[in-house]
Design goal:
The longest helix is centred in the first third of the chain and has 10 residues. The model has no long low-confidence stretch (mean pLDDT about 95). The protein has one domain: Arc Repressor Mutant, subunit A (Orthogonal Bundle), CATH 1.10.10. A hairpin with a 5-residue loop joins β1 and β2. The N and C termini lie far apart (about 30 Å). The radius of gyration is 12 Å and the shape is globular. It has 3 helices and 2 strands. By secondary structure, it is of the alpha+beta class.
């Protein structure tokens, strides 16, 4: 059985790396990162969102897991 996208994203965040929607799409095939982050927050994970600018000048959300 394959890991769910939510579990894959949580594992990614637990390594200390941030994730953006394009990262989630490219690495995990996740088109709705915001929804997966919402699920993780509902499960009690403390996730910080920061708006960052891409190389092409677009602003996107970048999510990071806040360590307790």
């Amino acid at each position: 059985m394959t890991e769910t996208q939510t579990a894959q994203i949580l594992a990614h965040l637990k390594t200390g790396r941030s994730i953006t929607p394009i990262d989630a799409l490219n690495k995990y095939g996740c088109f709705r990162l915001g929804a997966r982050i919402y699920d993780l927050k509902q499960d009690g994970h403390n996730i910080y969102r920061e708006m960052v600018e891409t190389d092409s000048g677009k602003r996107v959300a970048s999510y990071t897991l806040v360590k307790p």
